[in-house]
Amino acid sequence: VSGLFLYPPGGYMGWHTNEDMAGQRLYITYALEPNKSFFRYRDHNTGEIITSYDSGWNCRLFETGFGKPLWHCVYSDTFRFSLGFRLDLAAVEEVVK
């Protein structure tokens, strides 16, 4: 588990990279009201800021670290629950073989 958060209305996590804990992340979130909370990040290639709004249950997979820090943040204007996992994909590939 890499994160377990309950955001109340007005709750947020500021911009950060998780660069010290590089790897694949899977986050499962639930927002009580649609389009009132979001995951926002900066695209590595274009520099564009992208906002991904929550609507009920959501699932996001992204990579942090590895020399390309993923700048990202979260904001919520409703109750939002977030459960994150740091994945070891190399270990998963070994099990699947």
- Percentage of β-strand residues: over 45%
Secondary structure class reads mainly beta
How many H/I helical runs?
1
Low-confidence stretches: none
**Main beta sheet, described?**
4 strands, antiparallel
Calculate Rg over CA atoms: 14 Å
- CA(first)-CA(last) distance: 24 Å
What best-fitting shape do the alpha-carbon axes yield?
A: globular
Number of separate strands: 8
**How would you spell out the order of helices and strands?**
EEEEEEEEH
Question: Any descriptors?
Answer:
97 residues; mainly beta; 4-stranded antiparallel β-sheet; 1 helix; 8% helix; 55% strand
What does this structure look like?
With 97 residues, the chain is mainly beta. Helices cover 8% and strands 55% of the residues. The chain has one helix and eight strands, in the order ββββββββα. Strands 1-8-3-6 form a four-stranded antiparallel beta sheet, with no helix packed on it. Strands 2-7-4-5 form a four-stranded antiparallel beta sheet, with no helix packed on it. Strand 4 and strand 5 (49-53) form a beta hairpin. It is globular, with a radius of gyration of 14 Å. It starts with a strand and ends with a helix. The mean pLDDT is 90.
